[in-house]
Specification:
By secondary structure, this protein is an alpha+beta fold. The chain has four helices and four strands, in the order βαβαββαα. The chain folds into two domains: about 45 residues, no CATH class; about 35 residues, no CATH class. The strands form two sheets. A two-stranded parallel ribbon has the order 1-2. The chain has a two-stranded antiparallel sheet with strand order 3-4. The longest helix is centred in the last third of the chain and has 10 residues. The two termini are about 15 Å apart.
Length: about 80
């Protein structure tokens, strides 16, 4: 599983500060792809977690509630939704 951090920070210093606490990769601050991803996945609030399968299809549109309520069990449920 790969996690990619996409930030909507308005200031690079805030992005750098938050990014420094994370072990995963990110799309660079101010990158034009950020707005395209926001539109494509209908992101209206943050934080937001979109779970994609290996071909880029949306598996879970809003995974944040799953993680908040179920923690690591959510991952197992997502895996079970993948086509066999």
């Amino acid at each position: 599983m790969e996690i990619i951090f996409v930030s909507f920070d308005k200031e690079k210093s805030k992005f750098d500060e938050y990014k420094a606490t994370m072990p995963w990769i990110s799309i660079p601050f101010g990158d034009k792809r950020i707005e395209a991803l926001k539109e494509k996945y209908g992101i209206i609030g943050i934080p937001h977690l979109v779970v994609l399968d290996s071909t880029g299809n949306v598996l879970i549109q809003n995974g944040r509630p799953d993680v908040q309520k179920k923690s690591a069990v959510a991952f197992d449920e997502w895996i079970n939704k993948l086509p066999k």
